[in-house]
């Protein structure tokens, strides 16, 4: 059953440029969800039911309300949920009503308390299997009852119910799934879409958006149960590269093609009704195919914008007033809640063939494994991104991107653009995980050459990661017998590129993820030899993800559509520069000053210069930069003659802000020592909380406390980042007693937080706290520099 979220991975080639989507306000999404939940609660009867106007069916409307509320995070012990479940349990089995109601009731049982309701789930599954049509064009489908007919809407909900039952351990026989797979295969129209009613050879009336989404998702689920994975196990042997193209994959791709050609979020394509029912199905299609884009369209952002605009804004919180207000409100909530699930990683489609996807379920299975771990969100998603069509902003919707293959089919003329895109992604805090499959010498050579293009400057080479690196223990300690060579590039406060070269005689990590059985519906158990390999392979993969993300993921609605900034106005008058003071060591956080400037521009209205730069004290033009920024991990040391030059620069109106990368004590002590040489006789002062530097008076923020990340690492156990509130800690050197601050230093890390990276190696301020603190420091410097020049 694990393959239901990716029985295949679509090789979708997009025509034309992608449609620019609007940014989503996460507060608006949360508020819309809260209003929708509150509306449903106000419409619930005292006995727990929700009524559908003009219909005697109360089981279905009650169940869909429960499903929506649980998907939005309403706890199972909420009084509204508990009242509804008592009502549903009183009408289980034959009493539930038609197949719609029976299916929805089954899904509610699975989502709320599957252990307590296991007998009811089994009873409902038996009824759904019995009600499946078995003859003629309707064979494998479902209708409202067991009359032998079928329609694709009832059939869709029956499939969803059986899927949820399998997920909680109620096995459905293969004959039912085979019949369902045939049904959905045979009812597809020749143009790739599906209509409401089955027709011989797909010759029925026009395809409809909602039913096409139903067909795609139902094929994914049915084929996911039955079709072979991309790797198998025979005894103690793991056989990789077993993927074979299936008819289901081709049909699903054809369905996506129809949906892309007729894409809309304003209406149900080729239908004048069932708008929110369609959007609920669209969300499921996008999520199950792991596609961020359907054709040229970002389905989640476009759909969310439409749903937010359609909600009642006069205090009701509902959608689509009328007979179907309960179900339509539930459909809208399901889109908003499920669609915004955080993206754990993106699998990169690259090259001219499908070599990038030799194990189509690898990333999906790794995500399922992460969801089962206590420190991770219980519901995440992953995406497939075509690197040729995606912009850097598209890549930045995911904290990690994954590349894996044996062969390398990227045309040579496309490699420079690919390298620039990956460098931009890393510059903005991204993380690359790459693996060469056994026998993949072509990929190994090409990836190494690609990294040399990504980092042409010295100091950023692939090097073997030491045994003490957190990726060996961040989540799961790895058995020494299952260690393998892993290389990395340290960039931007952490190892930002992790590369697993091919190891002959060993299955690749992606192969081990492929054979992982999350649900194990067949009850097959691997030998100890195989299971140990799988467990350690999953452990390495999850360690890498824990290291890359610190388990701190954002929902889709929380990530801006556009992150890369471009400066349109070339007038540099009055702009603020913040160059990095280069003292001879490799800059560990090259994007920190510029990211701080972007924050000052967006939040404080400061005109900034977006051209990043660095200066040394040997440069004659250092005098043109009154504000300087520096940081480091190792020893800070100035050359002979530079102490006097820096002092003269600062006393003529300059200012220096420094911080210790990841709170490194070596840098902190050496920097403070060197500044005493710059200002003999001066001493460091702890800047009091009452100082103007912590005040909003300079156009910044009123700061009384800030949040810092502390890293807890126990040998043989997980590495965890915890946060706590502290009073901000800054030290400074004044120009004279009571005068302005010339140098301000933070012993806690600021720069790595400004890099937008999360690392299980780094102790310091959280990103928002670092931005506010650093902004206040620079605004203080601007104010006092401006005052000194008037």
β-sheet strand percentage: 5-15%
**Strand runs, count:** 21
- Biggest sheet statistics: 7 strands, mixed
* Cα gyration radius (Å): 29 Å
How are the strands ordered across the major sheet?
6-5-7-8-11-10-9
Question: Structural class, from secondary structure content?
Answer: alpha/beta
* Mean residue pLDDT: 89
Q: What coarse outline follows from CA principal-axis ratios?
A: globular
Distance between the termini: 72 Å
Query: How many helices does DSSP assign?
Result: 23
Description:
There is one protein chain. The chain has 790 residues and is an alpha/beta fold. 39% of the residues lie in helices and 12% in strands. The protein contains 23 helices and 21 strands. The strands form 6 sheets. A 7-stranded mixed β-sheet has the order 6-5-7-8-11-10-9, sandwiched between helices. The protein has a 5-stranded mixed β-sheet with strand order 14-15-20-19-16, sandwiched between helices. Strands 18-17-21 form a 3-stranded antiparallel β-sheet. Helix 19 (592-604) links the parallel strand 12 (580-581) and strand 13 (614-615). The protein is globular. The termini are far apart.
């Amino acid at each position: 059953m694990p393959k239901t979220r990716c029985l295949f991975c679509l090789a979708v080639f997009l025509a034309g440029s992608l449609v620019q989507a609007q940014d989503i306000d996460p507060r608006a999404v949360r508020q819309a969800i809260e209003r929708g939940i509150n509306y449903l609660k106000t419409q619930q009867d005292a006995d727990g039911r929700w009524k559908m106007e003009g219909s005697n069916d109360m089981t279905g409307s009650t169940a869909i309300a429960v499903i929506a509320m649980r998907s939005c995070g309403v706890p199972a012990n909420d009084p509204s949920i508990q009242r509804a479940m008592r009502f549903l349990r009183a009408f289980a089995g034959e009493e539930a009503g038609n197949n719609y109601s029976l299916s929805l009731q089954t899904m509610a049982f699975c989502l709320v308390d599957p252990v307590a309701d296991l007998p009811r789930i089994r009873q409902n599954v038996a009824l759904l299997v019995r009600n499946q049509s078995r003859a003629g064009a309707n064979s494998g489908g479902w209708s409202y009852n067991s009359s032998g007919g079928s329609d694709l809407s009832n059939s869709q909900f029956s499939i969803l119910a059986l899927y949820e039952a399998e997920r909680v351990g109620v096995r459905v026989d293969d004959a039912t799934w085979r019949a369902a797979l045939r049904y959905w295969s045979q009812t597809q129209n020749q143009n790739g879409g599906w209509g409401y009613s089955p027709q011989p050879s797909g010759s029925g009336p026009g395809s409809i958006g909602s039913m096409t989404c139903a067909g795609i998702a139902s094929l994914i689920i049915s084929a996911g149960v039955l079709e072979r994975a991309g790797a198998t196990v025979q005894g103690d042997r793991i056989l990789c590269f077993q993927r074979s193209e299936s008819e289901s994959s081709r049909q699903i791709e054809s369905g996506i093609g129809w949906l892309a050609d007729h894409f809309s979020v304003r209406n149900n394509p080729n239908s004048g009704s069932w708008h929110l029912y369609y959007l609920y199905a669209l969300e499921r299609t996008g999520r199950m195919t792991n596609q961020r884009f359907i054709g040229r369209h970002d389905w989640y952002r476009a759909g969310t914008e439409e749903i937010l605009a359609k909600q009642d804004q006069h205090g009701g919180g509902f959608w689509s007033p009328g007979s179907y207000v309960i179900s339509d409100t539930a459909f809208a909530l399901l889109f908003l809640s499920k669609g915004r699930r955080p993206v754990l990683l993106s699998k990169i489609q690259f090259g001219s063939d499908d070599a990038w996807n030799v194990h189509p379920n690898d990333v999906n299975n790794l995500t399922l494994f992460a969801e089962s771990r206590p420190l991770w969100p219980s519901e995440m998603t992953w995406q497939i991104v075509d690197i040729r069509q995606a912009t850097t902003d598209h890549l930045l919707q995911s904290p990690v991107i994954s590349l894996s293959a044996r062969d390398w089919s990227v045309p040579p003329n496309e490699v420079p653009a690919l390298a620039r895109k990956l460098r931009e992604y890393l510059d903005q805090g991204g993380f690359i995980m790459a693996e060469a499959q056994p026998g993949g010498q072509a990929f190994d050579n090409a990836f190494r050459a690609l990294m040399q293009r990504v980092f042409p400057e010295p100091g950023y080479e692939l090097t073997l990661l030491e045994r003490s690196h957190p990726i060996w223990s961040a989540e799961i300690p790895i058995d020494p017998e299952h260690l393998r060579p892993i290389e990395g590039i340290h960039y931007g406060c952490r190892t930002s590129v992790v590369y697993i070269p091919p190891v002959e005689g060993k299955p690749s990590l992606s192969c081990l993820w492929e054979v992982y059985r999350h649900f194990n519906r067949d009850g097959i158990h691997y030998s100890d030899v195989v299971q140990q390999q799988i467990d350690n392979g999953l452990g390495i993969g999850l360690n890498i993800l824990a290291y890359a993300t610190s388990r701190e993921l954002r929902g889709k609605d929380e990530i801006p559509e556009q992150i890369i900034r471009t400066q349109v106005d070339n007038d540099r008058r009055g702009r603020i520069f913040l160059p990095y003071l280069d003292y001879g060591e490799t800059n560990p956080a090259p994007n920190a000053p510029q990211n701080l400037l972007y924050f000052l521009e967006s939040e404080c209205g400061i005109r900034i210069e977006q051209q990043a730069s660095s200066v040394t004290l040997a440069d004659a033009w250092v005098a043109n930069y009154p504000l300087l920024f520096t940081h480091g991990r190792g020893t800070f040391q100035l050359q002979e003659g530079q102490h006097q030059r820096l002092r003269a620069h600062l006393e003529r109106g300059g200012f220096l802000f420094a911080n210790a990368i990841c709170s490194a004590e070596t840098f902190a002590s050496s920097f403070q020592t060197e500044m005493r040489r710059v200002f003999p006789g001066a001493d460091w002062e702890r800047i009091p909380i009452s100082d103007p530097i912590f005040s909003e008076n300079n156009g910044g923020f009123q700061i009384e406390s800030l949040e810092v990340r502390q890293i807890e690492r126990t040998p043989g156990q997980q590495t965890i980042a915890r946060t706590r509130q502290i009073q901000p800690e800054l030290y400074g050197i004044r120009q004279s007693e009571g005068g302005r601050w010339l140098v301000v230093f933070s012993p806690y890390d600021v720069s790595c937080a400004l890099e937008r990276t999360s690392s299980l190696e780094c102790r310091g301020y959280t990103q928002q706290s670092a931005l506010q603190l650093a902004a206040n420091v620079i605004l203080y410097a601007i104010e006092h520099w401006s005052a000194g020049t008037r």
